[in-house]
Each structure stands twice: as C-alpha cells, then as structure tokens.
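Friendly challenge for the regulars: who can give me the structure tokens for this chain first? No prize, just bragging rights.
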Amino acid sequence: MAMWIGINRKARVCYGFDDISLVPSELTLNPEEVDITTEIGPYRLDIPILAAAMDGVVDPKFAILFGKLGGIAVLNLMGIYTRYRDPYEIIEKIISSSHEESTQIIQNIYKEPIKEDLIEKRIKEIKSKNVICATSCIPQYAERFFEIAKSSGVDIFVVQSTVTTVKHISKKYKPLDLYKLCKNSKIPIIVGNCVTFEVALQLMDAGVSGILVGIGPGAACTTREVLGIGVPQVTATADCAAARDFYFKKTGRYVPIITDGGMVTSGDICKAFACGADAVMIGSALVKAVESPGKGYHWGMATSDENLPRGTRIKVGISGTLKEILFGPAKVDDGSQNLIGALKLSMACLGAKNIKEMQLVEIAIAPSVKTEGKIYQSVKKIEKEK
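First reply, four minutes later:
Bragging rights claimed.
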C-alpha cells in the first residue's frame, strides 16, 4: 500500500516491531511441547538464534559456549580477533575510552592489518570443541577469506555488508561473483543484508543458503541516521519471507530467512518469527551476558569506517549469564532474559506447534500495544532512570 507524500510522489507504508501485536488463536498448547528447532543448510539448530558477527558479542570462547547451547555464533573475520594476537587488551581500550573518544579509538584499532594465520587459528579453536563454526566477512574479501576458512574447517560462511546485491558495480575493484562463489562451495553461504522481495529473490537465484534481513535496525548501528537507508523489520522480514516462499514453490529449494537486528525484547523476537523468519540474529541482547567479550559494551561492525562510521559504541550492561539470558530463570521483567522460554510460551499461546506454524499466526497493526494501560510502568521506568 502506498500513500501520497507530495505531488506525483508516493511512499509505501512499512511497519516495525512496535507497530504490531500477535493475535491468539482458538488453540493453546503446552509450551514444553513446542518445537523451536530450525535448519540452516544441513545443520539443525536446537535454538533458532545466531549471535551477531560483532567483536563485542562473539569471540572464539563465546562461539563455543553458544554452540554448545544449541545456536550458532558468527565470528567476524575482519574484527580484532584476526588483527591482534591479544585481542582482549584491545577490547579493554575500547570499553575504557570516553564516549567522545570511542569512535576515533575504534577507527585506529581497526587499521591494523588482518593476519591470515589468525583466521586459521580462530576457526580451529572453535572447531576443536565440536561445535558449528560460522565466520563472516565483507564481499570484497569473500573469495580470499573463503579459501582460508574452508581449509581451516569452517562450517558456514557469511558474506555480509550494509547493503548486499547480486549486481554490484565498481571500477576500483573486482566485484564478488556470488553465483560462482555459491556454485563452487559445498559449504552453506549466508548472505546479507537485504530488505526487499526483489533482492532476496535474486540472492536465492544466485545459490545462497540463507539471507540476513535488516538494514540499520541494530542497537549499535547508525546507518539509518547517517545514510537515511532502511526498511522497518516487520515489513522487511515479511517481504523477504514472501520471496522465500515464492522461490520454494518455483524451485523446491528452501532458503531460510534470518531477521538480523532491531529486536530489543523477547517479544520482538516472537514477532520476527510471526512475520516469516526461520531464525533471528541478535547482538545487544547477548552482550549483556557475563561471558560476552564486550562485557556489556557493544559496537557496530561499520563503526571503524575511516571516512563515514555508521555505528556507535553503546553500553547495555551485564544482566546475567548466557544461560539465564537464553533459558532463564529470568531475574528481570523487561523481556531481556529467558528468550527461549518466552518464544515457546508465545508460540503456545498462539497455538503454533513449530516455527512453520508460527510464521502463519494472525498479526494486528497495533501501535498502542506497548503503551495501552501501561502508565504505571512508564512512571516506574522514569523513576528508575532518575
């Protein structure tokens, strides 16, 4: 649906997580009997969550722990873990800097060259503990780093940039041939990020094994402010899920959709699945874990851009262990802990036995859903902030 915004100019109405709510059906279930497993390539995940490829979220230790708990943590091959042999000394510099200094310090830190032997070392460190190892890099380095990652035993390779398309034009460097990369790979390749039906369909035609959906919704991302680009995640997820279903009907090949970013609470995660996601990728929710390398600090992947940083360092604090954040018991009432328990209960209340059924639940456009009758909670929040 489009609306007039001026003479001869229309704009489409799009929705984010705060604009909708999920409508219960005539059936309810026992939450313990709900199936939340999902599949990416040949891998079956006990929990449908990927940990974002950001240095404050995922290091090899966190990737191992997260993998043992049933998800996949993606290690950024262009981060500090492949630039520095002692990355934790570098992290301390980032989290101890003042807000005013943090962007410049991060820019300087990420000027250190990537060391290919560290790529191999980090991957083998994760693989030594028998968990799924996923790594990511930007398209310009994909072919080069893919070969190193493959020979090191990586299980899933992610090609990620602010906006990803099959058709990329550059006179300065040779664009990535995504068709060739996917065709020659026996390893699942996840690509992102995109937000439209057309691009998602083109990426699937190229042979990708999964698509990351979301431009600029992350807590530490400022792409929307800096570039003015983005589509709210509810609409973006629904559109890309429609492309997935169209492509599956046409070819018989199912390409999972992964909503990436913008989910602040467990309720948002539930809404992402209702909009069509097969899995979600989260960052800020996991930085709150005691085991996170960022120790409650989170900074975006594009923060280090020398000329136009599109991320900021934020402090979300530590709220509990990773097990508490994922499985509870929750010690807080704000939807930041026991994410899996909340997902199962939401699905049970909606009568959805599995992720596929969750993708079909009724959705209401409800911009007042978070504020209706919540005046006392709002007052409590203001008093707490004081």
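The chain has one domain: 2-372. The mean pLDDT is 91. Your move, everyone else.
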